[in-house]
């Protein structure tokens, strides 16, 4: 059985992750990044000839778009805002005096026009909508971004700042559900190729509050979200490393995405937890990468 403690300390001891003094905020070693590069190349190979349009956004996004998305209604506990100093000379003097007195200098900060990106796809929807109605075949995007969720934890697989690779499909309900079904199959083959144990199960997002409980039940009942789970920190509670999501017309309605019809577009995505898959590889194959099974090394590095 996998150990439920000590893995994070082992990663620190081996220099694969680097402590910063904040749970869930870590540096990564060159080897850690090398494993990640191999994994991303494998994902790209599995994407094959899909001809997804590559888009890369920074880990911060427009606060106005964030507010419009409805994220705060569902996940206020995870959100990260960016506050900055907007004061004058007198306010700066007060700030310095507060710091000298070991007081709470953050009271002088106010919200800026940007927030931390919670998921790689969030900045995409308004950008895509500005291009007008989708072509008849819809559109497919390839995204990769650092994301933030306020979940401080000693579980190395639950980091506050992490990378997410996503393929986002926009189109008719049939187009996007076929895309999700295809990637549900591809994702299992990909993880099997790198020798990791997994299971797939229907899931729900961590909606907040009493209303959130109803949303979670509805999401499960409609089978809108599946997760590919791999034991990392715990066998009893495996970690979601891939997710397969059907958003229905939520983002279409929110941002005015239309099909060629024109009708409100539906969207779906497959998401890969970059750090989580690297951690799964290190957990199951060991921290001595040179001793990994030849088939796994070939899958990652050829």
From TrEMBL:
Keyword Membrane tagged: no
Keywords from the named record: Ligase
GO terms of molecular function: ligase activity
The EC number(s) this enzyme carries: 6.2.1.n2
Gene3D superfamilies listed in its UniProt record: Bira Bifunctional Protein, Domain 2 (3.30.930.10)
InterPro entries, alphabetized: aa-tRNA-synth_II/BPL/LPL
The name this protein goes by in its record: Amino acid--[acyl-carrier-protein] ligase
Species this protein is from: Phreatobacter stygius
